[in-house]
Amino acid sequence: MFNTLQDRLSATFKGLRGKGRLSDSDIDAAARELRVALLEADVALPVVREFVAAVRERAKSPEVQQSVNPAQRVLDIVNEELIAILGGEARRIRLAKTPPTVIMLAGLQGAGKTTLAGKLARWLRGQGHQPLLVACDLQRPNAVNQLQIVAERAGSAFFGPEPGNGVGDPVDVARRAVAYAREKQHDVVVVDTAGRLGIDAELMQQAADIRDAVKPDETLFVVDAMIGQDAVVTAQAFLDGVGFDGVVLTKLDGDARGGAALSVAKVTGRQVMFASNGEKLDDFDVFHPDRMASRILDLGDLQTLLEGAAKVFDQQQQEDLTNKFLSGQDFTLEDFLGQMQQLRKMGSMSKIFGMLPGMGQFREQIESIDERELDRTQAMIQSMTPAERRDPKILNGSRRARIARGSGSSVSAVNDLIQRFTEAQKMMRSMASGGMPGMPGMPGF
Ligand code: GDP
Question: Is 246 annotated as a binding residue?
Fold first, then answer.
């Protein structure tokens, strides 16, 4: 997402950085570039106009003119205005005073509602809730079944129409589900409603009827970020027809231009609360406007990266490893395997690298990282015995052949791994003892 926008913005800032002082015409030129970049990214015109006008006005203020680094100040302003457009502060789900909290999902068919219900359930469970997923999409033939599967995967309870009861009445299902949740002490109810291919008055009425029956604490409008300008039109139609309190953007992992993400909050006056960026249950997060702005401006998203790391890395293991390293012991293949396994829990390597600042310029290399290469490396190390992992020097020809067979690779791939690891180990040894890496003859090498 946002690749073109990111490239365009960084070209604009590069142009500005080359200048010590910024004249009015420099700022006007940059504002024009910003405008084109945002329109190309499919951001809605009124949003672009307001954004560019605000940046231009602030950039021309004496405060910027007199600052030590005017270009940096303009970047800060663009960042602040982007955050404002994206909705300012992140907003959390409002929980009902008396449980259950009812969350209703609405949106077009294919927007990702059912997938989202599962992600939300998993996330809610992580927050200590006991969610109940409710299938009120009785329109799409397989929707009930799909939600049931998703609920199982998310480890959540499920409520649907009685089997063999014909199509059933979604309003009745929703009402009974809330009563069931109260009885079984599920504190959050997530109601998945029927989508529609286009804006359809009848189905919109159905969602409104469900809303009136269960009085949701939060109605979330789910929108596919890849549908471009249509997102704004659809959002407006749902706002008028059903009303909603928050927005969920899905498919942010796609390569579309992403203008929807930048327009919907501003146009509807409703916060984006969650973002979905993949088909797996974990590809989901609370939406933070500041982190999103940072990503768009290629300033990275270290906060999300660190939170991800805190979740997957075993604190004790990290401390043990640091101590081991400091006491001059070797970093072994066993340690390497452990680190790799934990790191990979955070997502794909390209996702992890993509969260580092300034990585926009290495996008091609990052996107071409082959995860299968990591799978192969992992398989080779896993085919070694613990003794071999601790001391690769014992790896003679027959052991190497066994590892190649066990991991489905070749002896030359095993040789290559061991050679690269031995070199890396040497380098780490020299760093640990204060020498310069990779410089023979230097102290500590
Ligand atoms: P619904 O009709 O609104 O319930 O939509 P579904 O949940 O059935 O999703 C429609 C399709 O989009 C499915 O193939 C999902 O796997 C896919 N999908 C949902 N969310 C995402 C996402 O964040 N990223 C990607 N790439 N695909 C998604």
Answer: no
